[in-house]
């Protein structure tokens, strides 16, 4: 248990880290590309790898991280994914150790610009992650699945589609979430401010001095007298001090070389900055639109500058190529790449605040009417509404919600499958299912007892008792023929069903003393008992005769309570299964499935009928289960599951609960105990226990 918890906690830590790291990289593929280039430069490989390869690597890196995170989260391909994570984390941890020690790149870029870590923090993070990956790799199969194997492909494919779409959209337009210091709404001057009392950087200078051929180093507090000669002074920075979010922004006038940053930013009004870090690789497809915007700004008296890190030659070529008339200024390439992830990209500032940012693919287009209006009158001249909540909602609706719904549907499906399996193997579940599916019946067989008046009185009493206290099962009373019509009058058919104890094996005609199935039906009865052991024994009813009776009963719309059961000798010879099977095969297994659905089976061990000897609940359950299995063999599991099998033989209120609690016992056929209302109701109430 503890081990499982540890594996799953580790797996969630890895998943969340990878997903966050992959997502923020996908949101800003150019930023990740620049970071890759930084690493390559640090390894002296910068010039060998072309831009398209570093950009492809950036997009793939984010997809791999995000994909691994999602696979970890959903426990998809657990062994392979944990191995891949390990293969990724070992070199990553080694690389970040090198970064921490050698410090060739100041920010690792693990989480893009969203979270900035020092190199030692990054190394520590990777050591923790490596530990988690090791735990998961040790026991990958302990990871709990959120979606079943068959649906995992949906999660992986959908996630890959999503992350590539995020990368593509961010590349076409701009990063959908801007974590950099130059996001819309930023006042550049304010971003450059150092608050009062902020920690300042500290430095230490040491002096290498010489006297009489002997050299020694001194600090400022121990600076020696003039007999020493200064050889060399060394200054090193001890602490960084406070660094404002924008600390390296500048704009230089190309012609004069003068820094005009303050002049441009402090001047009130609108300012367009066309940012092109590197003119040689800038996209020139939209130059018409850029020139139109320049003309618009010139017409309305707004300032418009190109800002680049390229030299004058490249600027000249750009002018020749695009017909650009705007003035170019220079700035630092890295700063320009940080300002906007588009080459070129357009910035609109108002009073030093960034109001809008556009990628070259999404430059504003002004129609004639708009071109005549000032920026104050146009939407683009104002800060946009904060679209972050909307973007988050989009991600939730388009990505997280579908996956969540899939997970719920999948879990419900897995749960129903598990329930089904349980029902098939577990007795308690079987019992629950049985009680849900099949009809529970308590039927009384009055046999040759009670005259008409007593019979009607008992029926009335029972009817009233059950109308007042609704039973949890179907109740049937089967009476001698002479009672049927009268009893039918006093019973509420919704509460108590009525049945006969027998019917003829002939349809109609000269059969003195016989009562046909049609006649039974005409009294209002719905059931008939056939095959009772007393009829088989005392009236020589053979399987063939019973077969006829069953056919006629069904033909006349009666449901049949068909009795089977072995004698004591047969039980002692352990032949009970054989006997009941033969009885069913002899009289009812010839029926169609549809006809068989009108049969209620009553298992009555002859040795228990009226003897006071009851089969134990276990004995009864064993043979009931057997009977159900042979019905299943003949008609299939569904019919068998739906068939009601009653127990009969000295069943009383005292033993009924135990018998009825068994999974395959669906009620009772009651003889002696059905002759008194209280006794019979006591058995009926066993279903309430
Ligand atoms: O039809 C009912 C059975 O023969 C059971 O009779 P019994 O409850 O009197 O034993």
UniProtKB/TrEMBL annotation:
This is Triosephosphate isomerase. NCBIfam families: BT_3928_fam, tim. GO terms for molecular function: triose-phosphate isomerase activity. It catalyses: D-glyceraldehyde 3-phosphate = dihydroxyacetone phosphate. The active site is at 532 (electrophile), 604 (proton acceptor). Residues 4-136 form the Methylamine utilisation protein MauE domain. Belongs to the triosephosphate isomerase family. The lineage of its organism: Bacteria, Pseudomonadati, Bacteroidota, Bacteroidia, Bacteroidales.
């Amino acid at each position: 248990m503890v081990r499982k918890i540890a594996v799953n906690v580790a797996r969630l830590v890895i998943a969340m880290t990878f997903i966050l790291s992959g997502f923020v990289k996908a949101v800003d593929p150019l930023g990740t590309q620049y970071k890759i280039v930084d690493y390559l430069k640090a390894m002296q490989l910068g010039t060998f790898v072309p831009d398209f390869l570093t950009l492809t690597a950036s997009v793939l890196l984010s997809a791999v991280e995000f994909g691994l995170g999602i696979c970890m989260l959903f426990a998809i391909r657990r062994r392979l994914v944990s191995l891949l994570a390990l293969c990724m984390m070992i070199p990553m941890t080694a690389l970040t150790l090198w970064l921490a020690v050698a410090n060739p790149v100041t920010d690792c870029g693990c989480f893009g610009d969203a979270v900035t870590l020092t190199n030692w923090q990054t190394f520590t993070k990777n050591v923790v992650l490596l530990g988690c990956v090791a735990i998961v790799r040790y026991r990958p199969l302990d990871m709990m699945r959120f979606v079943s194997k068959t649906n995992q492909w949906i999660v992986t494919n959908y996630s890959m589609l999503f992350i590539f779409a995020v990368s593509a959209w961010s590349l076409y337009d701009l990063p959908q979430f801007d974590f950099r210091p130059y996001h819309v709404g930023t006042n550049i001057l304010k971003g450059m401010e150092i608050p009062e009392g902020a920690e300042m950087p500290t430095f230490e200078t040491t002096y290498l001095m010489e006297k009489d051929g002997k050299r020694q180093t001194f600090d400022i507090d121990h600076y020696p007298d003039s007999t020493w000669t200064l050889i060399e002074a060394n200054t090193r920075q001890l602490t960084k001090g406070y660094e404002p979010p924008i600390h390296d922004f500048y704009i230089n006038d190309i012609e004069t070389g003068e820094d005009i940053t303050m002049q441009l930013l402090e001047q009130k009004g609108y300012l367009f900055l066309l940012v092109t870090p590197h003119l040689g690789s800038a996209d020139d497809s939209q130059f018409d639109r850029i020139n139109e915007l320049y003309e618009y700004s010139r017409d309305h008296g707004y300032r418009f500058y190109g800002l680049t890190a390229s030299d004058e030659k490249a600027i000249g070529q750009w002018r020749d190529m695009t017909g650009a008339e705007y003035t170019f200024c220079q700035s630092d390439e890295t700063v320009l790449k940080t300002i906007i992830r588009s080459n070129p990209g357009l910035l609109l500032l108002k009073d030093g605040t960034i109001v809008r940012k556009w990628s070259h693919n999404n430059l504003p287009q002004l129609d004639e009417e708009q071109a005549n209006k000032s920026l104050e009158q146009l939407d683009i001249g104002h800060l946009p509404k904060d679209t972050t909540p909307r973007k988050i909602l989009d991600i939730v609706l388009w990505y997280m919600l579908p996956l969540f719904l899939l997970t719920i549907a999948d879990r419900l499906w897995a749960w129903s499958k598990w329930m089904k399996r349980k029902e098939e193997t577990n007795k308690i579940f079987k019992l629950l299912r049985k009680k849900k599916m099949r009809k529970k019946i308590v039927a009384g067989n009055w046999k040759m007892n009670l005259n008409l008046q007593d019979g009607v009185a008992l029926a009335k009493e029972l009817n009233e008792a059950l109308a007042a206290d609704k039973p949890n099962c179907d109740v049937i009373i089967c009476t001698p023929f002479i009672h049927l019509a009268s009893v039918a009058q006093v019973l509420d058919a919704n509460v108590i069903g009525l049945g006969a104890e027998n019917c003829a094996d002939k349809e109609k005609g000269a059969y003195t003393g016989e009562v046909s199935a049609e006649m039974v039906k005409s009294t209002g009865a719905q059931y008939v008992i056939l095959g009772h052991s007393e009829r088989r024994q005392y009236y020589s009813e053979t399987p063939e005769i019973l077969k006829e009776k069953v056919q006629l009963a069904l033909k006349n719309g009666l449901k049949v309570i068909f009795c089977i059961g072995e004698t004591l000798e047969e039980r002692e010879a352990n032949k009970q299964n054989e006997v009941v099977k033969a009885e069913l095969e002899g009289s009812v297994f010839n029926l169609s499935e549809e006809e068989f659905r009108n049969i209620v089976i009553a298992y009555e061990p002859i040795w228990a009928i009226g003897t006071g000897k009851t089969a134990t609940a276990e004995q009864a359950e064993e043979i009931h289960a057997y009977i159900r299995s042979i019905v299943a063999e003949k008609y299939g599991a569904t019919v068998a599951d739906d068939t009601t099998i009653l127990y009969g033989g000295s069943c009383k209120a005292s033993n009924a609960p135990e018998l009825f609690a068994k999974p395959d016992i669906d009620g009772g056929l009651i003889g002696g105990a059905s002759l008194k209302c209280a006794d019979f109701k006591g058995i009926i109430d066993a279903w309430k226990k």
